[in-house]
Amino acid sequence: MFGEIRNRRGERLDYTFHEGVGTTKNIVVLGHGVTGNKDRPFVVALGEGLAAAGIPALRFSFSGNGASEGKFTDSTISKEVEDLGAVLDVLEDHTVCYVGHSMGGAVGVLRASTDDRIRLLVSLAGMVHTKAFAQREFGDVTPDEGFMWDEPDCPLSQAYMDDLTQIDTVVDLSPQISVPWLLVHGDEDDVVPIEDSRDILAKANDQTQLIRLQSANHVFSDESTPVMVEKVIAWVKPQLANLNL
Known about the structure:
Blueprint: E1 15-18, E2 26-31, H1 41-52, E3 57-60, H2 77-89, E4 95-101, H3 103-112, E5 118-124, H4 130-138, H5 158-167, E6 181-186, H6 194-201, E7 208-213, H7 224-243
Parallel strand pairs: 2-3, 2-4, 4-5, 5-6, 6-7
Antiparallel strand pairs: 1-3
Helix pairs in contact: 1-7, 2-3, 4-5
């Protein structure tokens, strides 16, 4: 439907479009987290759930991930912010809600704080304190030699660590986001603690809501998947309706 999507470096971004109903110009864009891609089960489930609820969805893999072009070792938050901009470029005539998971959540905050094409924002287990994440998860790994979580397909680059460290935290950007914003976080997340969402909520606008999912982990696996999908759709659908009044 949208043809090829390429970022500023000319790298093709792989995506899947879930068609909704009718001729609506609403669309939900789904971005994944680090070491992930558009085909993670809970991302697919959310895309399918949105379409079944009549809301078109586009899930894509950031450059260097999944079937998208580019090198994984070049994947940083800053580059993924540019990737999201390339997706928004092809959706100029759409009302866009962006849903970002984990690192993709930090990408959403950075993009939405400066780009008014994002009309609604959802953070799923969103990473907030990026420097702390880098130290906590990869502080004992040698960049450009070791791997993320011992995954051979996910080498840890110095560029990635430097970018996380330079950003440090996105918490202070929250006052710059004026659109309705949903935070969804599991209370058993051992990758990005729910405190990240609580910290950013404290500085966010009064249109921001935090939903705590009991017993949900970082990727909303098993019985947490349909609960997460239901909560997101229940929030997104009336918000889009309000924007189109």
